[in-house]
Design brief:
With about 220 residues, the chain is mainly alpha-helical. It has one domain: Urease accessory protein UreF (Orthogonal Bundle). About 70% of the residues lie in helices and about 0% in strands. It has ten helices and no strands. Helix 3 packs parallel to helix 9 and helix 5 packs across helix 6. The chain starts with a helix and ends in a 10-residue tail after the last helix.
């Protein structure tokens, strides 16, 4: 399949989107002592995949593939990403992905999204930028969703290896377990409706909001 190598490049952890600078909330749990080892990080990661990544990012990608208006989906993501740092992280990484994608995987749809962003009519969120590029490359929805989710899990695990810290072998064990959570999330998304969009655990959001005022931090979010 011609899209496979492109998809590997698009989801490679070396892609310079700035993901290494974001914990997306787990650093707040580290500060409170709730995440401190392989097991506790695995619990947090499973919750994050099953909640925010499923009901926000993955669902946005599905709606995009099904013909949803990108400007509308962009606005919904901006509205439902309540923690400021998380919203800014999505936009920063999305902006980088739009820039990189336009250079290495250009398409009319991607150019249109960049125009919306540059003219202030859209923010430019990461899952939508990824979805636009993946769809233009002919990546099936199921493959695109699984790849996006696992790329996010990989970045977070690499960051946890540094921050907690964890050993490299522990990181690989976490990724193996998280693969099952990713598969379950990708399957669950297919049954969700627009009313489910943004249904996230308050505990995750509160921790992400607290991070903004955390005394010492390694990550931007």
């Amino acid at each position: 399949m011609t899209y496979q190598l492109a998809l590997q490049q698009l989801t490679d952890s070396a892609l310079p989107t700035g993901a290494f600078a974001h914990s997306l909330g787990f650093e707040g749990y580290i500060e409170r002592g709730l995440v401190h080892d392989e097991e506790s990080f695995g619990v947090w990661l499973a919750a994050f995949v099953g909640q925010q990544l499923t009901y926000s990012d993955a669902l946005a990608i599905r709606f995009l593939y099904e013909g949803g208006a990108i400007a509308e989906l962009d606005g919904l993501l901006t509205a439902q990403l309540l923690p400021r740092q998380l919203r800014e992280a999505s936009i920063k990484m999305g902006g980088r992905l739009l820039e990189i994608g336009s250079e290495i995987f250009p398409s009319a749809e991607l150019a249109e999204y960049r125009v919306l962003v540059s003219t202030g009519r859209a923010a430019g969120h990461q899952p939508l930028a990824f979805g636009v590029v993946a769809r233009s490359l002919g990546v099936p929805l199921s493959a695109a969703m699984a790849a996006y989710l696992f790329a996010a899990v990989t970045s977070l695990t690499q960051n946890a290896v540094r921050a907690i810290p964890l050993g490299q072998n522990a990181g690989q064990r976490i990724l193996r377990k998280a693969a099952d959570d990713v598969a379950a999330a990708a399957e669950r998304v297919s049954d969700l409706t627009p009313d489910d969009f943004g249904a996230v655990s308050p505990g995750l959001e509160i921790s992400q909001m607290r991070h903004e005022r955390q005394r010492a931090r390694m990550f931007m979010s």
